[in-house]
């Protein structure tokens, strides 16, 4: 296992060749298993990271510049997850290994607090849940997110969270406190409400209706929540009737916005998804090979068609597409001042 090869950019947004210095060394790793049904077959690798705030590569399509990801690997086990490739940087399997070998950055809250305290940090927006879900099942045991949100609250640093996890409601009070002092955005990922499709492609996630309950609960608590309708899966979840049913359910949950995102198949995820497709829907393999013949993304005409259909349905049901906001710089520093001896974190 190549712990020394875990570097900033490949860890969060797959970009290709590894060139950065390691974020932690093998001497900082503790491997654990837990004898509970919830974590049967799951191995946790607890590490003390050297950095937690990561810059997104400039070539990325992501609409944000900075991320925090306290976990690597995900028990949600979504067969399409684009982050699967990141496990290969540790010589870990991108299939079942990604679902069951979970890296936990146990010092994430303290690292983030130190980073926010630095005079060289200017309060840019931080996105979470952009690589793997920060509210996956492991969070119920490790409880990293309360400390992370507390640090962001104390420094009035704007942030957003994307999740499929219902565990976010545990931190509802902290989210409300943070929203009183800074910009807080929450989105829940619900690509479809088809239960049969959910059981096969997202076997470790809460059911779609439970996720929509989260949207409803957040709204009732005064925290507007959008829905990332992702992924829209070609030929399995893109029928007009399926799209209508999903958008109707999203609207009924009180979502502030709905934004469709068509399935994309990056290396690592593509191989795993296509193997799953060949087993469960072999008649679709050739259609997928043609649709994704040019690369990881479906053709523009297909993406535009899905987007148009969802936006028309959203208008019909009284919601609209999300409008991304850029990073915001704080006018004044908030929270405690750093100690005189504090130094800016660097990648070692």
From TrEMBL:
<dbReference type="GO" id="GO:0003824">
    <property type="term" value="F:catalytic activity"/>
</dbReference>
<keyword id="KW-0408">Iron</keyword>
<feature type="domain" description="Radical SAM core">
    <location>
        <begin position="60"/>
        <end position="309"/>
    </location>
</feature>
<dbReference type="InterPro" id="IPR040086">
    <property type="entry name" value="MJ0683-like"/>
</dbReference>
<keyword id="KW-0479">Metal-binding</keyword>
<dbReference type="Pfam" id="PF04055">
    <property type="entry name" value="Radical_SAM"/>
</dbReference>
<dbReference type="InterPro" id="IPR058240">
    <property type="entry name" value="rSAM_sf"/>
</dbReference>
<dbReference type="GO" id="GO:0051536">
    <property type="term" value="F:iron-sulfur cluster binding"/>
</dbReference>
<feature type="region of interest" description="Disordered">
    <location>
        <begin position="317"/>
        <end position="348"/>
    </location>
</feature>
<dbReference type="InterPro" id="IPR006638">
    <property type="entry name" value="Elp3/MiaA/NifB-like_rSAM"/>
</dbReference>
<dbReference type="GO" id="GO:0046872">
    <property type="term" value="F:metal ion binding"/>
</dbReference>
<keyword id="KW-0411">Iron-sulfur</keyword>
<protein>
    <submittedName>
        <fullName>Rv2578c family radical SAM protein</fullName>
    </submittedName>
</protein>
<dbReference type="InterPro" id="IPR007197">
    <property type="entry name" value="rSAM"/>
</dbReference>
């Amino acid at each position: 296992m190549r712990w020394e090869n875990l570097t900033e950019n490949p860890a969060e947004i797959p970009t290709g060749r590894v060139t950065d210095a390691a974020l932690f060394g093998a001497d900082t790793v503790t491997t654990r298993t837990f004898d509970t049904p919830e974590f049967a077959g799951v191995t946790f690798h607890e590490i003390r990271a050297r950095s937690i705030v990561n810059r997104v590569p400039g070539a990325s399509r992501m609409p944000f510049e900075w991320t925090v990801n306290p976990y690597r690997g995900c028990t949600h086990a979504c067969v399409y997850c684009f982050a699967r490739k990141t496990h290969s940087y540790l010589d870990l399997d991108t299939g079942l290994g990604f679902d069951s070998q979970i890296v936990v950055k146990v010092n994430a809250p303290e690292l983030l607090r130190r980073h926010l305290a630095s005079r060289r940090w200017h309060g840019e927006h931080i996105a979470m849940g952009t690589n793997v879900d920060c509210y996956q099942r492991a969070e119920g045991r490790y409880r990293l997110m309360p400390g992370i949100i507390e640090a962001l609250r104390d420094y009035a640093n704007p942030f957003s969270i994307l999740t499929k996890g219902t565990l976010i409601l545990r931190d509802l009070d902290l989210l409300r406190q943070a929203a009183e002092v800074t910009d807080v955005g929450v989105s829940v990922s619900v690509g479809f409400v088809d239960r049969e499709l959910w059981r096969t492609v997202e076997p470790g996630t809460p059911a779609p209706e439970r996720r929509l309950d989260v949207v409803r609960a957040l709204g009732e608590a005064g925290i507007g929540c959008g829905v990332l309708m992702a992924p829209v899966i070609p030929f399995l979840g893109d029928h007009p009737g399926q799209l209508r049913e999903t958008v109707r359910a999203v609207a009924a949950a009180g979502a502030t916005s709905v934004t469709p995102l068509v399935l994309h198949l990056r290396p690592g995820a593509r191989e795993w998804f296509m193997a799953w497709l060949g087993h469960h829907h072999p008649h679709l393999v050739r259609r997928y090979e043609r649709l994704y013949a040019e690369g990881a993304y479906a053709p523009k005409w297909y993406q535009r068609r899905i987007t148009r259909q969802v936006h028309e349905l959203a208008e019909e049901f009284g919601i609209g597409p999300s409008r991304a906001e850029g990073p915001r710089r704080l006018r004044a520093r908030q929270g405690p001042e750093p100690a005189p001896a504090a130094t800016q974190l660097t990648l070692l």
